[in-house]
Amino acid sequence: MSAVPSAHPVAGAAAPVVTSSLEGGVATLTLARPAQRNSLSEAMMAALTSALASLAVDPSVRAVVLAAEGPVYSAGHDLKEIQGHRGDADRGRAYFEDVLKRCSQLMTAIVRLPQPVIAAVEGMATAAGCQLVASCDLAVAGEQARFCTPGVNIGLFCHTPMVAVSRNLARKHAMEMLLLGEWVGADEARRMGLVNRVVPAGEALAAAQGLARRIAEKSQVPVKLGKAAFYAQAELGLDDAYAYASRVMAENMLARDAEEGISAVLAKRAPVWEDR
């Protein structure tokens, strides 16, 4: 975990924009710019992308929780950074394309991370912040959490958040969020499919870590194969999806832990996982 930004920076060093901790196989990454509403600045996106890359190859990490400090989970892109490039010779086009590419790479890094990622949301998640939640595999929200894709209200449709949101919600629910740009409360977000569970305010992190610990107890062979397969088959037609899933399941059946798990069921005993 040494490559992941530390929650305890050395004396004199700049405070990290993302902090990390690891306990019982569960890594918790925390957005740590509450004064800036945890906006997805260039520094924040770089830190998150780097942290995820380190977690992806760390065998001690079995699940990841993505939390945030302060009353705002994430306000999306740093609008001051964006506006600062309006004076560029191309009116900011090259910068806009680059920053959106980096944001997209961050979101796909979450989806492609071998370990499941659970968002722990308190407060507001708006625009690319809502996209961040939608990109996670699971999401737990405090009862006062709110979600919004408000770009349409400022002349800027939430095109890139749309990609993640539309892959979580039914089309009409997604279009409602994108066209109206209105706040959606935690209970409504759960009904729409954006979050899995709603808990009392202030308890989202503990609840998300609880889910992560339950995942961490399982063999990592089916968890990692299953997460990758879930997203891959979702992009295929029905016949191709079944063919692909059958190949992956056959591979899974050959794993030592699958043999152990089936043997344990037949012997009516608890399985002993080796993660292979």
Kindly describe this structure.
The chain folds into 2 domains: 18-216, 2-enoyl-CoA Hydratase, Chain A, domain 1; 220-267, Lyase 2-enoyl-coa Hydratase, Chain  A, domain 2. Mean pLDDT is 94; it is low at 1-13. The chain is of the alpha/beta class and 276 residues long. Helix 3 runs parallel beside helix 4, helix 4 (128-135) runs parallel beside helix 5 (159-166) and helix 9 runs antiparallel to helix 10. The longest helix is centred in the middle third of the chain and has 20 residues, at 93-112. The protein has a 6-stranded mixed beta sheet, with helices on both faces. Strands 4-6-8-9 form a 4-stranded mixed beta sheet. Helices cover 47% and strands 15% of the residues.
CATH architecture of the largest domain, please? Alpha-Beta Complex
Query: How helical, in percent, are the residues?
Result: 40-55%
Radius of gyration: 20 Å
Number of domains: 2
Physical arrangement of strands within the biggest beta sheet: 1-2-3-5-7-10
